[in-house]
Amino acid sequence: MGDESDRTGKMTAALRKAGIRVTRQRIALLAVLAEAVDHPDAVELHERAKRLEPTVSLATVYRTLSVLEEEGVVHRHSFQGGGARFETTHEDHHDHILDIDTGEVIEFQSNKIEQLQEEIARELGYDVVHHRLELYCRKKL
Amino acid sequence: MGDESDRTGKMTAALRKAGIRVTRQRIALLAVLAEAVDHPDAVELHERAKRLEPTVSLATVYRTLSVLEEEGVVHRHSFQGGGARFETTHEDHHDHILDIDTGEVIEFQSNKIEQLQEEIARELGYDVVHHRLELYCRKKL
DNA sequence: GTTTGTGCAAAGCATTTGCAGCTGG
DNA sequence: CCAGCTGCAAATGCTTTGCACAAAC
């Protein structure tokens, strides 16, 4: 709980820093994002936020998510099937495993793969600006 | 030219095999796909196909692409920004580099990365069914 | 002749936007 | 106060679909 309000605090601070007004709707969304351990989509975030602040509209959820994304506070993922899903940015970069059957998202991290990517791009005359790596998987029996 | 009609031939064969009728519109689309070296989207494919067969509609392009995808004849890619882009399936599996500035697509292949992916999934109790790896890059100076 | 494919226009879906009113600083 | 938000509803962009006609086999 301490952690959670810390994160919310950091987020509101980020809003303030960006010269952006701190409204009831935005606070609600930030709280929801802070406590989310899954990777919810906009509709899901909207539903959760409405429980804290019934006046939030889906349009505002989208607008706020875009602002937060620009500020680097959240990441937007466009996995296969359905709409975008969001997560709060955390320290370490990571990629995702998606459980095909359940839709569950598992995070992982591989420096080796990262290095190989850079290497491949370099050999072809490119610099990697960002990448997308998703493993669509099924649980082993 | 021989190669190209070979590929078209293989594709029509694939249609026949799937018990699907071979129509003028589908032949046009197949020809366009066979000669495409880039990764065109549906609208672009529609425009090219219309040059061969003016009666093709965009709806049919989409419908045919879905059939071809199910038959494993083409692959659909959903890169960031804009709609889906298509390419004919070729022997070797590969991933993509996307030039952020030009939209150009470069293919590459890395067994090492592939192996690492399997390894990571296995350790977490998963089998990789398929994956998506895209490097969004900028040309080095 | 059936059965399947086609064009057209309308519908779907996720997301964005214009606008008149509300509200934070 | 007044710029910056907000909800609402309408608009967007890509893709799919219902339907009556056309064309494969």
TrEMBL record, chains A, B:
Subunit structure: Homodimer.
Cell location: Cytoplasm
Entry binding sites for Fe cation: 93, 95, 114, 131
GO cellular component terms given for this protein: cytosol
Family membership: Belongs to the Fur family.
Annotated organism of origin: Sulfitobacter guttiformis
Name of the gene encoding the protein in the UniProt record: fur
Pfam families registered for this protein in UniProt: FUR
Cofactor section: Mn(2+); Fe(2+)
Taxonomic superkingdom: Bacteria
Key words of the record: Cytoplasm, DNA-binding, Iron, Metal-binding, Repressor, Transcription, Transcription regulation, Zinc
PANTHER family: FERRIC UPTAKE REGULATION PROTEIN, ZINC UPTAKE REGULATION PROTEIN
Gene Ontology terms: biological process: negative regulation of DNA-templated transcription; regulation of secondary metabolite biosynthetic process
Cofactor binding: number and manner: Binds 1 Mn(2+) or Fe(2+) ion per subunit.
MF annotations from Gene Ontology: DNA-binding transcription factor activity; transcription cis-regulatory region binding; zinc ion binding
Name of this chain's protein: Ferric uptake regulation protein
